[in-house]
Write a structure and sequence with these properties.
The mean pLDDT is 96. The chain has a domain of 228 residues: Amidase signature (AS) enzymes. The two termini are 18 Å apart. The chain is of the alpha/beta class. It is built from 15 helices and eleven strands. The structure holds glutamine.
Length: 478
């Protein structure tokens, strides 16, 4: 096995037993990136010097016989909307093309303390808005399983990098499916964390009531390792909490699992439906009791999400005004702005791409006087109904099983001109974000060479049992 194919757990054991050094491991990934990333385009920025110096520190630890934290010396990558001090952070946008972060996000601070090796920042849809990574202001990322297809999005760079062995694991962010959907498209594991489980400090905000950082890994065991390292209360994010739920060992024969009928809708690819139903059957064969359940408000989830999310986007992105951050028309050679308002308008018009502008306009409209009650407030009420659907289902069952995406990885360019067809790709993921729940995407098979993902949705803060069920499934699905 090549070094860059190892899981976190395997790489950790190799380092601990001194089969290779952290520097050798890091170099193996750097070489793989220079060999393969020209084709895949998963990285926006590489941090080679940082990676090598971090690896050297870990080697020193090892040579002094010190205890090795599990993530020490393990090379990773992260989505370019998470801040690493002194490293460029673009959020996939021209407006932040030259922005250098002045502090570490809390997740990065935690990972650095544990000896992580940072290889670089990965490509993404601009400000995390998209499902294909084609909305990146810089270039599209390709799916490693088929270079003519998208890797999913918006954390497409992170998922493609893990799938192509260009990093051992990666961080992505979720607002409406951006970890799970690209993980599913690239055949890797992705976790949407419970809202509040992981600090958002240092994550460039898209829609703050939905955003969460989550791991993208090769195995469920690795997802647990990363989750354990980055989660917990952070005084710098008042929405983060340290929630203790009882841990217990799952006994399949005592488990009750729901299959929501609204998730097997018309329009879902029949091959995906077949693979996911086979996966559910395999789980049932373990003695798990499977029930059909109903989440009746699912049909409103997409429209609710595409009302709440742009409203928050319009507020959050107001800070990019050509004064404080990034691209500014005031920096162009000839003076092109007549007054302050003109600076705001022109900087934003030139700095933001089409999808971002579309969402700012939609959100500003939904929040404006006279429309607020009819759109934003109503969407918030439906959001509560969607959450209550899950609460009711979880009175009867411990988990829910569904597909991650209704479609296979699509061709690059196929949907980009039609925003609605792009939004439809999110139909099976957004409810989980609206309800603040955790959910795991795990590969469950392939159609030709294209991966398909199974989604396991859990109760809030039950990540640990999600990992247990995920690992059981991984074993039976091998
Ligand atoms: N595809 C969804 C969107 O475009 C989800 C994005 C996300 O989770 N960041 O809004």
């Amino acid at each position: 096995m090549k070094l860059c194919e190892l899981t976190i757990k395997q790489a950790h054991l190799g380092l601990k037993n001194q089969e290779f050094s952290a520097k050798e491991l890091t170099k193996a990934f750097l070489d793989e990136i220079s060999l393969k990333d020209k084709k895949i385009s998963s990285f926006l920025t590489q941090t080679k010097d940082l990676a090598l110096s971090q690896a050297e520190k870990v080697d020193e630890l090892i040579s002094r016989g010190k205890e090795l934290p599990i993530l020490a010396g393990i090379p990773m990558a992260l989505k370019d909307n998470i801040l690493v001090k002194d490293v460029k952070c673009t959020a996939g946008s021209e407006i932040l093309e030259n922005y250098i972060a002045i502090y570490d996000a809390t997740v990065i601070k935690k990972l650095k303390e544990k000896g992580a090796v940072i290889l670089g920042k990965t490509n993404m849809d601009e400000f995390a808005m998209g499902s294909s990574t084609e909305n990146s202001a810089f270039f599209p990322t390709k799916n490693p399983h088929d270079l003519t297809r998208v890797p999913g999005g918006s954390s497409g760079g992170s998922a493609a990098a893990v799938a192509a062995n260009l990093c051992c694991y990666a961080l992505g962010s979720e607002t409406g499916g951006s970890v799970r959907q690209p993980a599913s498209f690239c055949g890797v594991v992705g976790l949407k964390t419970t809202y509040g489980a992981v600090s958002r400090y240092g994550l460039i905000a898209m829609a703050s009531s939905l955003d969460q950082i989550g791991p993208i890994t090769k195995t469920v065991e690795d997802a647990k390792i990363v989750f354990d390292a980055i989660s917990g209360k952070d005084p710098l994010d008042s929405t983060s909490i340290e929630k203790q739920v009882p841990t217990f060992n799952l006994q399949p024969s005592a488990l009750r699992i729901g299959v929501p009928k609204e998730y097997f809708i018309e329009g879902i690819d029949p091959e995906i439906e077949k693979l996911v139903k086979e996966a559910i059957k395999k789980i049932e064969d373990l003695g798990v009791k499977i029930f059909e359940v109903s989440l009746p408000h699912t049909k409103y989830a997409l429209s609710t999400y595409y009302m709440v999310m742009p409203s928050e986007v319009s507020a959050n992105l107001a800070r990019f005004d050509g004064i404080k951050y990034g691209y500014s028309i005031t920096k162009s050679k000839e003076p092109r702005a007549k007054n302050l308002l003109d600076v705001y308008l022109k900087s934003r018009e030139e700095g933001f791409g089409n999808e971002v502008r579309r969402r700012i306009m939609l959100g500003t409209y939904a929040l404006s006087a006279g429309y607020y009650e009819a759109y934003y407030l109503r969407a918030q009420k439906v959001r509560t109904l969607i959450k209550e659907d899950f609460d009711k289902a979880f009175e009867k069952v411990d988990f829910l099983l569904t597909p991650v995406s209704p479609v296979l990885p699509f061709k690059i360019g196929e949907r980009i001109e039609d925003p609605l067809s792009m939004y439809l790709a999110d139909i099976l993921t957004v409810s989980v974000n609206l309800a603040g729940l955790p959910a795991l995407a795990i590969p469950c098979g392939k159609v030709g060479k294209l991966p398909v993902g199974l989604q396991i949705i859990g109760k809030p803060f039950y990540e640990d049992s999600l990992f247990q069920l995920g690992q059981i499934f991984e074993e039976i699905n091998e």
